[in-house]
Amino acid sequence: MSSYQDYLKGVALVLLATVCFSFQPIFGHLAHSDDVSVVTLIWLRFLISAVLLHLFLFRQTTPYWYRPFIIGVLFSFGSICYFSALRSLSVGLTTLLFFLFPVYIFLLSVLLKHESISWLKLLAVGIAAMGVWTSVEVETISSWPGLMMGLAAGASYGIYIMLSNHYLKHNSPFDALRWVTTGAAASLSCMMLWTDATLPNSWSGAGAAVGLSLVCTLMSMVFLLTGTRLIQRSSDVSVIASTEIGMTLFLAWLLLDSLISNSELVGAAMVFASALLIVVAKKQETCKALQAS
Q1: How far apart, in whole angstroms, are the C-alpha atoms of residue 234 and residue 114?
Q2: CA distance 271 to 278
Q3: Angle CA(148)–CA(153)–CA(157) in degrees, nearest 5?
Q4: Contact 82, 216 (CB under 8 A)
């Protein structure tokens, strides 16, 4: 079991990852304005990341490289679903659907008996789920495909976190990320052969792809993988990462002129409170373990 200091470091790193992830709809909006196709945008995102990581780690060999490679294929599917939903739904509704992933992780953790769930942690997950639902006002859903894409994006991300926590915790973050991005780029390269690729037509579209690669992929995933390894619990990571909804709403208001309602502010506050509750629950578990020993 990791020390409480390591746990707090993990919390801080996961929070940094959420800040980086929060820029995804901003870059997606810029790419959409430049008429860049979803598959092309995600392909450029992972291709740039994979090339940079392979150049940086070209002397390093990786045992069991196929594990992060396969996880990367799954991650690319979730990214396509997220940005496809973003093109037909609002930022708020897309964020709502995506951040149902803590609920998926909680249910899977209980069914698979991977983690012990206390009443305090159960309360935290419940508050997070309520906060997500409260954050976005009810709106008319005009795109059922977009709705399904948003739900699939959340489910894919939840499975990605669980697989990363189980299979990648012994890999160095950069090394694991190298093969995750390679797997994603390889699967998307196959899709590029069967779709109409629309490359960026301006500096804003190209900048969106580079920003997704550097900020929302390299930086965010290194922070997430390192924090996940320190925290060692998928449910904890999922709830803490759900604080991203508040940052996403703030950036949408600041950069995209998207109005933030009172219900969105209340919901975001509930999600932040659930993250703090998770940390308190972990401290109690650590204290009890020390007393028992």
Answers
A1: 9
A2: 11
A3: 150
A4: no
What whole-number distance in Å separates Cα of residue 230 and Cα of residue 189?
33
Give dist(CA 255, CA 25) in Å, integer: 10
**Quick one: tokens of 73?**
């294929």
- For the whole model, what pTM was predicted? 0.76
**Of residues 67, 3, 24, the one with CA closest to residue 214:** 24
| pLDDT (tens place) for every residue of the chain, 293 residues total | 457 788 889 889 999 998 998 898 888 888 888 888 888 999 999 999 999 999 988 877 777 788 899 999 998 999 999 988 888 777 777 877 787 777 777 777 777 766 667 788 788 888 877 877 776 555 545 567 888 898 899 889 888 878 887 777 677 778 888 999 999 999 999 888 887 777 788 888 899 899 999 999 899 988 887 888 888 776 677 777 777 777 887 887 777 776 667 777 787 788 778 777 877 776 777 677 777 76
* Cα-to-chain-centroid distance, residue 32: 20
3 state DSSP class of 34: coil
